[in-house]
Amino acid sequence: MLRQRTRKSQGFACSGMATLSRLCYPSSPLPSMKGRFQKAEFPVEKVRCYLEPGPIVLVSSALGEERNIMTMGWHTVMEFTPSLVGCVIAESNHSFRLIRESGECVINLPTRALLDEVVGIGNTTGAEVDKFATFGLTPEESRVVNAPSILECCACFECRLADDSLVRKYNFFVFEVVYARAARRPKHPETLHYTGNGVFMVSGKILSRRAKFRPELLD
User: What region holds the Flavin reductase like domain (predicted)?
Assistant: First the structure.
């Protein structure tokens, strides 16, 4: 559900960009891209609106005959090898028990075409509805884990719980991605980023500066 945070945060986590000043301070004009920014005091409990690093994802899970999907914006890459991803899942969320007990989940990447499904999933609980059926999403058998993947998502990352030492204190799960699949096209999918208050941004123009990078820093 959207209001799943228990420690003064609620709803989706925000994905921040400078353009959020329009949302936070509607009367303030946007400064030039390379100008000097005139800044005002900002609520410390809302800095997440600028710092959230990644796109909205749909996390699917299963335990026995139960299955569920949750909308998540609070996640971060922690390591490349092994591939570790940290996620915040509130204990009040129906997926919490399924993932904690099964030790597995799939992180699915939706595009803007699934915006309404993303919002609907975040506003309902799997304790009351089957979200696959309710929102017309197709469960797809995963390659390694028992949790289903979502066919309509452009990438699926199968995960096993690697470290739960921070779950009790912070609801913070560390997952290892044990198998990954991604669509070949589009190369840069239009992912969704949540800014709070029911407003989303879509990933935009792609900018390349490969020529300015040291070769050892590139794939």
Answer: 49-201
